[in-house]
Structure formats: structure tokens, C-alpha cells
Amino acid sequence: MGYIVDSHFLPVRDLILTARASTIRPAMKTSLWFCCLVLVAGPAVAAELHDLEFAHVAGESLRLDAWLPEGAGPHAAAILVHGGGWTGGDKSGGPRKALIAPMQDPLQQAGVAWFSINYRLAPKHPYPACLDDVLAAIRWVKAHAGEYRLDPDRLALVGESAGGHLVSLAAIKASAAERVAAVVPFYGPSDLTLGLKPDEPLRKNFVALFGRPTYDEPTQALLRAASPLSYVRAGLPPFLLVHGTADVTVPYEQSTLLQAKLRAVGVPCDFISIEGGGHGMGPWIKLVPDYQQQVAGWIVRTLHVLPPAARP
């Protein structure tokens, strides 16, 4: 089934009338009312939005949260993709504001808009549903850049763990209409076959994602086809890799391999290494207190974000 993208962005008068129409889905009404609030408030007002529907596929509403800077823009933006082993997680980061949520405040302080998305999860939705949803989010943000005062050519993808895998793969496989300007995978798998042995049972999340119980030849082909490392080529956008050296869930080698292959074909690729850091960025602040600012600073430089005093 194809995507139904929310395109009901109208002048304020028509927007209010449309939002009141009984024929609009409840999720669409929520999206319309939030868009109405942004437009009524005016272009200079910062706004935080919740549960906007960016696509509807296979009977499932795909939602995002967003933060928009003050000022007329057009602003640089980042799409945030949570982790959770492709089987769990949420755009909000949960009560502890974990997963990708620790990057929200640093981006806000840097004046970068963000859109934190949910995507379909395995095993209900096997691969490539999750990848398709990330690409759908890119298209939605670009299509509505004008309404949200964004520059569609200054868009970054930022993801952690499974979300790191998805942002790498989405950036590498993107069409011209889905191209982004920067990619930041936190401890994302780049080679899904790394460390696997013939005929051994697969991890539970791999079984859920791919529907294959053991690592045989067909499974190897499937995992390679879902690995960012398989598609690296010249002309990709700049990457920033962020990984803890003590990560036992996604080995540090996953990022060093990706950096080496990207640089070998001339793609700019920087690396922030968190010495002693495990899987998950939450505890990293005790090891590298400014790691969030380092990441936000790289995004600011790469997307050419102006300092506050110079913004229109």
C-alpha cells in the first residue's frame, strides 16, 4: 500500500474550516490544528509541536514531534530517528528522555529546527518498512519546508543505534528528491553481517526484522542488502560518526569501517570517539560533558547556520 502524505496546508482561514470538517481523520485534525497555530502565531515565534502525522501507510499513522526556531528563516533542520533494535523505542525518548532525545535541546540552542519521528517497528512490519518511513519523513519535511520556514537544502539526518543504521542507509540510498546535506549516526550498525558465523542463530531483533532464524546464504544476502557499507559511493553528503569505544551492543568497529570506506571514496567523514562510552548516549555526559555541543557544532558548521545576531 502506498503512502498518503498529509498535504493539507492551506491559508489560515481555509485551514480552520478544513480542521473543523468532519470528514478529516482525527490524526489529520490534530496536524491541521497545530499547523494553524504556527501560522497564526506568525513567522517570528518559536514553536514546539507534537504528534503531527507525516504519512499514513498500511493502516498505520506515522507521527512526529517538532521544534521550530523563531525568526523568518529559512532555517536548517534535522530529522531525528530513535533507536530500539528496530523493534521498540519512541520519538519522545520516553520518561527519561533517552534514545535520540538528548540531542533536542542542543539543537534548539543552536537554532536548528528538529523533527523527531516514529517509524513502523518489527516484527509487525519487517524490513524495509522502517527505511521506507525515514525516506517518507524526508520527503514530507522537504515538501512542507515553506510552511515551517525551513531550507530544504539544509537538512540533516541524526539517528542512534537502529536509528543510526537507518539514517546512514537512507542518506546513501536516497533519491535526488530525498537527498540530505548531513548525516550523523550515533553507534549505528553499518555492516549487519559483521561477526556472524555460518548457520548460527540470529539475534532476536534480526529475526524480527528480517524473518530469518539462522545465518545462512540467503540471510547473508539479505543482511548485506540492508547494510549501509554495501552502498557507499562518491558524492554522498558529509557524515559525522559518534561511537563509544566500550560499546558491546554495536561494536566500535562498525563506525571505523564506515569511516574508512567513506573516506576512501572522498566523502567527508568526521568521528567523535567517546573513550569508555557504552551503548546509549545517556551516560556519556559523565565521560565527555560537551559531546552534545560538539555534535550540534558540527551540524551548525555543515549546514551553515548563522549565529543568532545574524539571522533574519
Strand order of the largest sheet: 1-2-4-3-5-6-7-8
Give the structural class. alpha/beta
Approximate helicity band: 25-40%
The sequence of SSEs as H and E is HHEEEHEHEHEHHEHEH
Describe the main β-sheet briefly. 8 strands, mixed
Shape: globular
Average pLDDT rating? 89
Unreliable stretches covering 5 or more consecutive residues: 1-43
Q: What would you say about this model in short?
A:
This protein is 31% helix and 19% strand.
Give a written overview of the molecule.
- The structure is a single chain.
- The protein has helices spanning 12-20, 26-41, 104-109, 129-143, 162-173, 204-210, 217-225, 253-264, 291-302, and strands spanning 47-57, 60-68, 75-81, 113-117, 150-160, 182-186, 239-244, 269-274.
- Helix 1 packs antiparallel against helix 2 (26-41) and helix 4 crosses helix 5 (162-173).
- It starts with 11 loop residues before the first helix and ends in a 10-residue tail after the last helix.
- It has an eight-stranded mixed sheet, with helices on both faces.
- It contains nine helices and eight strands.
- Helix 5 links the parallel strand 5 (150-160) and strand 6.
- By secondary structure, the chain is of the alpha/beta class.
- It is globular.
For this entry, give a set of tags.
312 residues; alpha/beta; 9 helices; 31% helix; disordered N terminus
Task: Spell out the blueprint of helices and strands.
Elements: H1 12-20, H2 26-41, E1 47-57, E2 60-68, E3 75-81, H3 104-109, E4 113-117, H4 129-143, E5 150-160, H5 162-173, E6 182-186, H6 204-210, H7 217-225, E7 239-244, H8 253-264, E8 269-274, H9 291-302
